[in-house]
Amino acid sequence: MTIEVKKIDEYQVAFILVKGSYEKIPETLGEVVGWLMTKDVEIQMPIYGLYYNSPKEVSEDKLEWEMGAAFVGDLEGEGRIQIKTVPEHTAVSTVFKGPFSEANSVYGAMLEFAASNGYEIAGPVLESYLNSPDEVPESELLTEVQFPVVKK
Questions:
Q1: CB atoms near residue 78 (< 10 Å)
Q2: CA nearest to 24, candidates 83, 79, 67, 59
Q3: At residue 19, does pLDDT exceed 90?
Q4: Are 67 and 49 in contact (CB under 8 A)?
Q5: What does 60-83 look like in DSSP terms, one character per residue?
Q6: Cβ distance 78 to 31 under 8 Å?
């Protein structure tokens, strides 16, 4: 596994903020992507999940996360769908190969890498889903995992 520090350029996303079980992920992603597909915008980067807490910290009904996708264009939020601009930032990043549900297995190594290279975690973990279980077997799924960081 290769862990690197990289600069992430500013980008705009459409997303839904959810409180509750991760079982809602597929339908939430479908809602965001489906909505974007009806708009006159270009979907830019892989769909993502941003996880504000963990099942190790809170009960399932208190999990807080968002699902979304970046796009280029001009949109306003609608219903549950919100729009935000993610500012340029630095992140510790790696690509995990295997089932999406096991991507968190790399978190510890990434946190250790950040600390040993003089960085502090500066926000929640982001997982970008680079391919789809509709296209490849679970063992071939690719997830880019990023933690935003700042120099200590």
A1: 11
A2: 67
A3: yes
A4: yes
A5: GGG-EEEEEEEEES----BTTBEE
A6: no
Q: Closest Cα to residue 65, out of 112, 114, 125, 119?
A: 125
Q: What is the pLDDT of residues 108-117, one digit of tens each?
A: 999 999 999 9
CA torsion through residues 131, 126, 26, 95, sign = positive
pTM as predicted: 0.93
Question: Can you say whether the dihedral through the CA atoms of 132, 133, 137, 141 is positive or negative?
Answer: positive
Q: Map out the domains of the chain as residue ranges.
A: 4-151
Could you tell me the two tokens for 137?
Answer: 């077997």
Measured distance CA(47)–CA(29) in Å, rounded: 8
Tokens of 85: 């601009």
Average pLDDT over residues 34-61: 93
Domain 4-151 has CATH 3.30.360.10: no
| Pair 130, 144: CB distance under 8 Å | yes
Dig out the tokens for 23 from the structure: 């079982």
d(CA 129, CA 116): 27
Q: Kindly state the tokens that stand for 73.
A: 């264009």
Question: Is residue 45 predicted with pLDDT exceeding 80?
Answer: no
